[in-house]
Design goal:
elongated, alpha+beta, 6-stranded mixed β-sheet
């Protein structure tokens, strides 16, 4: 009963302390975010097992043996205490072992490259970080959007992420995880929203002057029908995302408004990734023992 009461009290304290964290990692709305919040809480509680007694003893001994208390005479008669040594070493070792096991298990369970097990068919989204905006391409739907991401709640989303500029970091705090976007390569992330809502998406890695305005909205629709309506709205726009329009979009700009492309050319994401794999013709080929990579769409 005591342990149960203590657990309830601890949860109540944490709820009060975290009540002001709405919209962040401590207010998760997706399974990955929930699992990561649990890790934060567990790790914090384990560390408090050491931190709280140390703080308490520091204050208690400072008060107990303060100057002016003649009846509290500090006269230690020992040089070693087996009990104290055991506690000082055993407790931290146990905590480190527990944290190690939790870290090992959670690292594999929350691997961002690991697809989520779910009965619903995942939605594929390709993400490109630009200066200073986010481009979302839906390859299966043939559409794209800038600074607005939509998907149905309770449906996994498979992200492929790259950058067309400096290294950046894709992050929707309430859904969990963040992963870097890097030029010339594609990273992966798998997320799901457990409930409908509009969540803040941010850049979690400083990338220059317009970094502060590099934000987007992630909209989890309540039903697939609402998502279909969003797709229809995007398709109603005449803008087309092709190589020419992409070059205009890729130019640096700050605080970009939401923009929709009713049609997105196939292979845009691969083109963006592979453009940094090209070798400049002026390079001295005698310095390279391998073959020059073929350009996108060309044979070797």
């Amino acid at each position: 009963m005591f342990i149960k009461s203590l657990s309830k009290a601890t949860l109540a304290i944490f709820s009060i302390l975290l009540s002001g964290c709405a919209g962040g990692v401590l207010d998760p709305k997706g399974q990955i975010g929930i699992d990561e919040k649990n890790l934060i809480v567990i790790a914090t509680l384990l560390m408090l097992i050491v931190v709280i007694p140390v703080i308490f003893m520091t204050l208690f001994f400072a008060w107990k043996y303060r100057d002016g208390r003649d009846h509290e005479i500090y006269t230690p008669k020992w040089a070693h205490s087996t009990l104290i040594e055991t506690v000082v070493w055993f407790v931290p070792i146990v905590i480190v072992v527990i944290l190690g096991v939790i870290t090992w298990v959670s690292t594999h369970e929350l691997d961002p490259y690991k697809p989520l097990k779910h009965e619903a068919t995942p939605i594929e989204v390709e993400v490109v970080s630009l200066n200073w905006k986010w481009l979302f391409i839906y390859p299966e739907l043939g559409i794209a959007s800038v600074n607005e991401l939509a998907f149905p709640a309770n449906v996994p989303v498979n992200f492929k992420i790259t950058s067309d500029t400096a290294m950046n970091s894709f992050f929707i705090p309430q859904l969990g995880s963040q992963i870097y976007s890097m030029a010339g390569m594609a990273t992966q992330l798998h997320l799901i929203a457990n409930e409908a809502g509009t969540f803040n998406g941010i850049s979690a890695n400083y990338s220059g002057a317009g970094f502060a305005g590099m934000k987007f909205k992630a909209i989890a629709t309540a039903t697939p029908e609402e998502f279909d309506a969003w797709v229809a709205k995007v398709k109603s726009h005449d803008l087309k995302l092709d190589e020419q329009s992409y070059q205009l979009l890729a130019k640096p700009s700050e605080n970009n408004p939401v923009q929709y492309y009713g049609h997105a050319s196939k292979g845009m994401f691969n083109h963006i990734v592979m453009q940094y794999m090209y070798m400049e013709p002026s390079m001295d080929m005698s310095q390279h023992s391998g073959h020059m990579p073929a350009k996108h769409g060309e044979s070797k």
